[in-house]
Records
---
Amino acid sequence: MAIRLRQICLVAEQLRPVLDDFKAIFGLEVCFVDKGVKVFGLENSLMPVGNNFIEVVAPIQENTAAGRYLKRRNGDGGYMVICQCDSHETQLARKAQAAKMNIRLALEHESPTFHVMQLHPADTGGAFFEIDWDAKGEPEGHWEPAGGSAWPSARRTDCISNYLAVELQAADPRGLAERWSAIAGIPLRHDHRGRTELPLDNAAIRFVEATDGRGEGLGGIDVVAVNRSRILSAAAERGRKLNDNQVNICGVRFNLV
C-alpha cells in the first residue's frame, strides 16, 4: 500500500491576487484551470510544485462550502489534503476503514480512469482528506485533476523545487493525528523536533497545536527553497514576509527548508 501527497488545495476570497503572489514570490505558473469546479460555485487554478501541485479555489457565487469555510477561519487558508494511492484496492480499503470509523464521504465519483474519494472534514478534522486513484498509476506523472500529462511544461523550480510537509493545527493535535493515521492505515512517527507526523510516500502530514487564533485547519506547508534570498525579497515587497524562514501566502505559513 502506498499513499502520496499529490495536491494541496487552498481557498481564497479572490483567486487572482493569490495567484499573483505565488508567481511573484515562488515563480510558479498555472498549469491547469478546471472548469468543472463551477458546479460547486468555484473557480480554480493549479500550479506544479516539483511533481505535485498547489491548487487555489475561490467562490464565484454565494452560499458555497468554500465560502462558509472562509468565514469560519476568518479569511484565506488551507482547505484540502489530496493524496494519490497506488491502486483501487488501496482506495477501497481506506474507504472501508473510514466507514468503520463513521466518517462520511463528502464526494465520491468513479470513472474508468479516475476515482475520487473525499472525506468529510467535520468527521476527519483538520481539513478535507481526499484519497484518489488515477488509473494510469504515475505517481510523478499523469494526474487527471491537473489535466492529465501536459502540466510539466508549466513546472518552474527556480525558487522552490518541492514540498515536504503539510501542517494541520488543532487544539488536540495528537487526537487529530491518531484519527488521520487510522484512516490512512499508516503508523505515526516523530520528526527531529519531536512533532507528531504521518509519513506518506513523498511527504509528511504534521500535527501541531493551533496557536494563531484561527482554530483548527491547514496552517502550514514546508517547501524546499532553491533561492531563499529571491523569495524573501519578493515576499517583503508584497508584504508577505513573516521572518527569514517563513512567508505567508493565502493565509498559509510557507516554511522555507
---
Amino acid sequence: MAQRMVNRSVIVTGAASGIGKAIAEGLALEGASVCIADLNLEAAQLVASGIVSSGGKAIALQVDVTERASVVSAIATTVQVFGKLDCYFNNAGFNQPMKFLEITEQNFDQIMRVNALGVLIGIQEAAKQYIRQGTTGKVVNTASIAGRTGFPSFAPYSASKASVISLTQAGARALAQHGVTVNAFSPGVVATPLWVKLDKDLEDIGEGDSGFASMSGDILLGRPAEPSDIVPTALFLASADSDYVTGQTMAIDGGMILV
C-alpha cells in the first residue's frame, strides 16, 4: 500500500511526548517530513532523531505556541528545510486542575492562552503560509471530550477545548475560500505522561477519585486509549483522504461521550 504522506510537510506542536509524539512518528512512517515543535527542545530533538534513524525526515524546533513570532519562525524554518507546508497540527496544550470554587484568574488565563489562543495563532499562521504558497492546506486541532462536557476540576481546560471546537468551525468557514480545511479530533482518556501528572494534581487537591482510573470506567470499549489509537484518525485528517471534510471534530474516546 502506498504511503499517504509522501511529499507532504507537517508541523506538529507539542510533539515531544504523548499524543503529539505518536502523531509525528505515525506521519513520518507514512512518508511525511515532520517538524517536531515543542517548548522542550531537548525532548523534541530525541523524537526527531528517532524518526531520522528509522529512515524518516524530521527536524526539531523550540516553539512557544502562545507567541506569534515563535510560530511564524517555526513555519518559516520548516518551509526553508522541507520546501513547503501542507499540514499544521495544533496539538500543544496543558491542564492544571483546581476545584471549581478555587479557580483563579491566573489558572484560567494560562490554560486559555495555550489551549485556545495558541490554536487561533496556529490556524492563522498556517493558513497565511498556504495562501503565500498558492496551495491548499490542512489544519488539525486537538480538542477533547472535555470540550463537549464540563468537568468540575477541569473547568478552564473544558472551556479551552470547547474553544478549540468553535475555532475549528470558524476557521473552516473563514478559510474554505482558500482551499484550507480545518478539522479537529477529540480524545478521551489517553495513557500519556499528561495523565500521570493530572492524577497527582487531582490527589493534591483532594479529587483523587476523579482521575484516570475513574474516568476510564466510563469507556464503552472497556479501556483507555493509547497514543497509537489516535494516529489513524490524525493520518486521515492530514492526508488527501479527508479533502472533502472540514469543520468537523471527530471523537476518539472509545464511546465515552455520546453526542
